[in-house]
Amino acid sequence: MSDLKYLLGFGNSIESEAVQGALPQGQNTPQRCPFDLYAEQLTGTAFTAPRHLNLRSWQYKLRPSVSGQTVYKKLEKGHFSNDFGAFTVDPTQLRWKEPAMVEEGQSVDFVQGISTMAGIGDPALKTGLAIYMYSCNKSMENKAFYSSDGDFLIVPQIGSLTLKTEMGRIHVGIQEIVVIPRGIKFSVCVEGPSRGYICEIFSGHLRLPELGPIGANGLANARDFLIPSAWFEDFEGNFTVVNKFSGELFEFTLNHSVFDTVAWHGTYYPFKYDLRNYNAMNTVTYDHPDPCIFTVLTCQSADPGTAVLDFVIFPPRWMVGEHTFRPPYYHRNTMTEFMGNIIGSYDAKSAGFTPGTASLHSCMTAHGPEASVFKKGSTIELNPVRYPNDHLQFMFETCFMLKLAPWALDRLDQNYLECWSGLDKLYVSGK
């Protein structure tokens, strides 16, 4: 869509107006706002957060958000659950086949189509995260959703999404991502069957990782992130809002659309990113670099260098390492790794990890390339190889140990461990 603008830097103050002159000049809350709009502030951090971390935006609306609202009523959650105390602990290496799309004849919107895979923590304490899959085929008409619990990182795998948000409209396709911060209302419109992955973080917000010795350039560039331009609809009639609050779902109705922000400015907004713009760093000498070299966004914990969430991708790139086992090395990691496949195949798995599938390798659980990949990687002639443009996988990596939802346990690939059969001892004494 054309109604997007460049972010130019995380934490930068942005302003946008759908009607020229709708933004007040010189102060946030004049006695009367231009066009008799209502001023309303949305804050994503504590008022007293340090200036470089403080996130808030002012909206200038047709009506305050509370206008015409009914009481919140609790909803049935379906497969959308944060009841982590009832989830299952299992350190086994796990994989899931791609979930079925919405069955023909069913009508399921984005919120109704979310199912929990795994999670940990407590959204009420603003700690931990949850991982979901979504599958839907119906647009949200006169309906919006927002989470009081955390930021939503949405990764489409089948079907593009058009999101209406309080700040404007965003179209996100395959190989793109969109982040909707805590509290921002949005609707999802689809053009047909759609499926993808979601990670919701309960603490902090996603930011660009520090570059360290890489220097000023590389990985995801701030200038490639896009935010919506102000857009509004003046709709009066029945409108439904679903709220995720402390792991539960609630619903209330309004007599108008929530998308009635005529102008806004600030540092708190949704954004999208095209993963094809990622500038991958890689070895040009030897050894396989750690996967953190492919981090797009991060949410850091209080422990320096340790992430609540690192969003990592495995993008198209050249592999040129000499005297090197090029596939991912066998490893045990203090972090937990949830992987998904957007398109193509992954270089550590020759079969079974198809687009739409997922895997979970938990803290200190051993994993790595399957037997056939090890044999090929150990014997192949090491010419430069291009990891092709139609291959893209990602990883939600977290310092937390995740627990498994019932929906996920019912859909496990029971044959996953077989991919490592045949990794027999090759050592020959005295060789």
From TrEMBL:
Co-factor requirement: Fe cation
Binding residues annotated for Fe cation, in chain numbering: H331, E337
Positions annotated to bind homogentisate: Y346, H367
Gene3D superfamilies, per the entry: Jelly Rolls
Name of a matching Pfam family: HgmA_C
EC numbers for this chain: 1.13.11.5
Residues in coiled coil: none
Segments forming domain Homogentisate 1,2-dioxygenase C-terminal: 277-425
Keyword line: Dioxygenase, Iron, Metal-binding, Oxidoreductase, Phenylalanine catabolism, Tyrosine catabolism
One cellular component (GO) term of this entry: cytoplasm
InterPro entries: HgmA_C (IPR046451), HgmA_N (IPR046452), Homogentis_dOase (IPR005708), RmlC-like_jellyroll (IPR014710), RmlC_Cupin_sf (IPR011051)
Pathway(s) annotated for this protein in UniProt: Amino-acid degradation; L-phenylalanine degradation; acetoacetate and fumarate from L-phenylalanine: step 4/6
SUPFAM superfamilies according to UniProt: RmlC-like cupins
Listed GO biological process terms: L-phenylalanine catabolic process; L-tyrosine catabolic process
MF GO annotations: homogentisate 1,2-dioxygenase activity; metal ion binding
Catalytic residues (UniProt): H288
Domain Homogentisate 1,2-dioxygenase N-terminal: start-end pairs: 5-275
Family the entry assigns: Belongs to the homogentisate dioxygenase family.
NCBIfam families per the UniProt record, alphabetical: hmgA
Protein name: homogentisate 1,2-dioxygenase
Organism for this UniProt entry: Stentor coeruleus
Lineage: Eukaryota, Sar, Alveolata, Ciliophora, Postciliodesmatophora
